[in-house]
Amino acid sequence: MKFLMDNWMLISIAVASGGMLIWPLIAGGMNAGALTASGAVQLINREKAVVVDVGDEAEFAAGHVTGAKHVPLNELEEKLVATVKNKTVPLILVCANGARSGRAVATAKKLGYEQAQSLGGGLKAWKEANLPLEKA
Questions:
Q1: Rounded distance between C-alpha atoms, residue 32 and residue 23, angstroms
Q2: CB atoms within 10 A of CB 131
Q3: Were both Cys, which of 16, 102, 108, 134 would link to 113 (CB 3.0–4.6 Å)?
């Protein structure tokens, strides 16, 4: 006990350092089910996946995945079924950085799209992979 009292500062630094080392593993685990940009391209080319951009109007107009359909996240439950009629095809949901599309996957799966996936890192990751964009 005396050791802990005498070295409380060193122990707290060690715990903080350990936390910073483990954080990337924890943060990466939150997006573990997300699709990479190259994985998305393979799904689009091989399985005719449908890309749905869930960003707002301005984001979609500024640039989106070529051929993507636009359904804002706040309208997803009402408009997704009319936009993507075939629920058996893979569905790739995209937003600016992957946060909203992660939430959109849950909505899509609730609507019956079992092959719905989020593009990990969103449009930012798509751009970093030097993949083509289209502007509205």
A1: 14
A2: 15
A3: 108
**Coil/strand/helix, residue 55:** coil
pTM for the predicted model, two decimal places:
0.75
| pLDDT at 28 > cutoff 60 | no
Both tokens of 133, joined, read: 């964009």
Instruction: Please identify every residue annotated as catalytic.
Output: 95
* Best CA proximity match to 62, nearest among 19, 17, 96: 96
Quickly list H helices, the chain.
2-6, 8-30, 37-47, 57-62, 76-83, 99-110, 122-128
Contact 89, 95 (CB under 8 A): no
Of 132, 52, 121, which is closest to residue 91 (Cα–Cα)? 52
CA angle 11-14-15, nearest 5°?
85
